[in-house]
Amino acid sequence: MSSASPRPSRPSSTSPASSSSPSAAGTPGPALLALPAGAPDIPPSADPLVPLGWDESWRQTWADLLADAPTGAVPGRVARSGRGRCDVLVATHDGAVSVAPDDGVVTVTAAWAPALERAVAADPVQVPAAGDWVVVVPVAGARTGAVERVLPRRTAVVRAQVARGSSYGQVLAANADVVAVAEGMAPDVDLARIERLLALAWSSGAEPYVVLTKADLPAEPDVLAAEVAEVAPGAPVLAVSALTGAGLEPLRDRLRGGATVALVGASGAGKSTLLNALVGGDVMSTRALRVDGKGRHTTVTRELHLVPGGGAVLDTPGLRTIGLAGEEALDDVFAEIEDLASRCRFADCAHRTEPGCAVLAAVEDGTLPQRRLDSHRKLLRELEHQAARVDSRLRAELTGRARVQQRAYRRYPLRP
């Protein structure tokens, strides 16, 4: 299972030009010209990939790969991924000069190269995900090409696959600078769900936010926001109304700086309405809650949307199940429990019946809510279970490889 690198620094604040939508892939556009080998570097201020999050760090990563990159390869960012192919946003260049009449970015539908298919077969986490930067070999004059490989991810929101018996992870969003946990203030706020989603957000390597949507509906939104802030230490909590625009400015500031914001949350949390408000258009249709208060699925795929003025929003489907993949940072989600645990008499205290347990003492005197401890125990059990499943899979893979080698030896024994 791949793990994300440490949280990246804030992307370049270069003011980008307006961006085209990935959904425009079917409309006529400029011919795609690959950057010729040996062509001079494009100044960052003129690079049409800057609004997509391309910065000096990514440029250096690309430069390190040039020696092994196929002829004609260009960098691109995955807008949407499917089985065996994905839509990739790439720049159009004639040498070092953009030839596109708009912002110099087009969408290419690219199939996976054989080497990438083999990597995905060995580990599904290697599947190109929305937000990934990839090496693309485009076809000149056409909007097709091949994805050769995925650049190392800075961050990745990974959950356990929902398929029964699977121990692999599933990448929900790649290379996000901010993971916004969306939770509706109406009909109610689910604190346990926020804690679970924050576990995914913290472990991704990105900066976690909690965005409480539908702030125009409850009578006292500030009271609810303060309650949520108590279970989200270290994460900004924003009470927003996508309909009026109230509370959205912190996210808009990050986007204007060139950041990528990933939206995660349950069905009915208001992610689609929030996406429309951030992008500034009706890019995603919305549906009302069912009469029982449960959410309806609107987004059915993971997709990258460019924001006019800079930045991008990564939309993800509503999560009915949020399986933890075994790498979550519970220390960040339950910072107060970790602090209390450092004062326990025993270093390996399980916080159940041990004498001198500072965590149990805090529950007894009301400093730590019992619900908070119960939630920590539940998530910890899930992480331990998932870790055991991964270990079992790895042991099975090693056993399988050994058997293949043994059969090959019996069939073709070494001869003196």
What does it look like?
The chain has 416 residues and is of the alpha/beta class. Among the domains are: 22-150, Nucleic acid-binding proteins (OB fold (Dihydrolipoamide Acetyltransferase, E2P), Beta Barrel); 156-315, 3-Layer(aba) Sandwich (Rossmann fold). The protein is built from ten helices and 15 strands. It has helices at 56-65, 114-122, 191-204, 221-229, 249-256, 271-279, 330-333, 335-341, 358-364, 370-411; strands spanning 74-82, 85-91, 93-94, 97-98, 105-112, 133-138, 144-150, 156-160, 169-174, 178-184, 207-213, 237-239, 260-265, 303-306, 312-315. The protein has a six-stranded mixed beta sheet with strand order 12-11-10-13-15-14, with helices on both faces. The protein has a five-stranded mixed β-barrel with strand order 1-2-5-7-6. Strands 3-4 form a two-stranded antiparallel sheet. The protein is globular and about 70 Å long.
